[in-house]
Amino acid sequence: ILNVEQSPQSLHVQEGDSTNFTCSFPSSNFYALHWYRWETAKSPEALFVMTLNGDEKKKGRISATLNTKEGYSYLYIKGSQPEDSATYLCAFVNYGGSQGNLIFGKGTKLSVKP
Amino acid sequence: GAGVSQSPRYKVAKRGQDVALRCDPISGHVSLFWYQQALGQGPEFLTYFQNEAQLDKSGLPSDRFFAERPEGSVSTLKIQRTQQEDSAVYLCASSLDSNSDYGYTFGSGTRLTVV
Fold it and tell me: How much is the pLDDT for A99?
């Protein structure tokens, strides 16, 4: 059974704080890792798709790193704002697995207090 | 349309009732996916279409679940004889192709509550 773990489960920070959270996934048969942001009452929004070991991607104040050999990815948010409050989901894609079969973690729920 | 549209947004069904959930993907998107998210869990894969062909239905939890995409555009997820354990958010996503470098575009989901 392929397992994707995210930690912490939830996080409360003050506006302006920088924060990071972790996604752990199987280190074998890696194909890709997706990160999504899901705000309440909205659709999950794709942040990054990462495929190469050592990859680092950035989108505004949000960045992500990838280590496929040890099976983890970090998501960083610099200078958190209230509008960053959302659940952040990572999803692992298994090489040789079914196309579209994203294996999601349970997410990290971030709350940013003004 | 501009995004992936799902309807209804909320559905309350009595146990044993049949339900149909609709997904309108982004025009031109070849790939379409259905996921089920139970309370406190991450979304779980149900099924995948490439155009009208259902290429993978390995995630459908029982034979009460059926999905179709007859013309390669709109898709319907049907659940027959609903049970309480079917209560979940059902998410639909679409993509230009299955190996999207930009991730998938999701709808807002349909929250199904079986009472």
Answer: 66
Size of interface A-B (CB pairs under 8 A): 74
Write out residues 2-61 of A within 8 Å (CB-CB) of B. 4, 34, 36, 41-49, 51
pLDDT in tens, A54-81: 999 999 999 999 999 999 999 999 999 9
Strand-pairing partners, residue B4, are: none
With 0-12 CB in 10 A as exposed, 13-18 as middle and 19+ as buried, what is A4?
buried
Closest CA in chain B for residue A93: B99
- Greater model confidence, B69 or B101: B69
Q: Which pLDDT score is estimated for A90?
A: 97
Quick one: which H or E segment has residue B111?
strand B110-114
Nearest to A35 by CA among A87, A97, A84, A100: A87
Average pLDDT over all residues of chain B: 94
Helices within chain A (DSSP H only)? none
Residue B98 has pLDDT above 70, yes or no: no
H or E element in which residue A105 lies:
none
Give the Cα separation of B40 and B60 in Å (integer). Answer: 19
For B28-60, the pLDDT digits (tens) are 999 999 999 999 999 999 999 999 999 999 999
CB crowding B6-42: b at 16 or more within 10 Å, else e: beeeebebeeeeebebebbbbeebebbbbbbbeeeeb
CB neighbourhood size of A10 (10 A): 11
